[in-house]
Amino acid sequence: xxxxxxKLAPALLLGGALLSASSITAAAVPVTAPVVADVRTAIVxxxxxxxGQGETPPGSNCNPYGPCEAWCAHFAxxxxxxxxxxxxxxxxxxxIYTWGQxxxxxxxxxxxxxxxxxxxxxxxxxxxxxxxxxxVVVAVGxxxxxxxxxxxxxxxxxxxxxxxxxxxxAGRPGNIYGWVAAQ
Length: 183
Hints:
Elements: E1 11-14, E2 17-20, H1 36-49, H2 72-82, H3 93-102, E3 106-107, E4 118-122, E5 131-141, E6 144-149, E7 157-162, E8 176-180
Helix pairs in contact: 1-2
């Protein structure tokens, strides 16, 4: 993610004095933490920008987000790192939920998500039989969500809008057992 101050022109006119980028000290450029909306927007933009990205070669599980293995969690955590969230590159979906629990961000419901949050499909975070897939929420409206998910038929794909309380009936690999808030 490019810091906002790098978007400045090479020279600034300040109070009648021309300042070059090299004459601006670090103290003159305020550094602020990213705004929550900016983090969420960056995550959503990263996820949407990858729709269609497939495995190379097809069917190999080799992907640009992590090692050649099941990669939905690698993709979801990659989107968060694009938004500036310091989360490990997890290969197991349940680890995302556990990470969120340790930071007060995990929710054991199937409602309340916002764009940028990660949803978890299955029955719980215990193992690969109970936590089966994950996706990034990219839109919310009228009680429905839209997700972008990695390793969905060997590619990054968009799903929805669908009712998160009936995800399996909407064609997802399981119902949503929980979600982790981006902020």
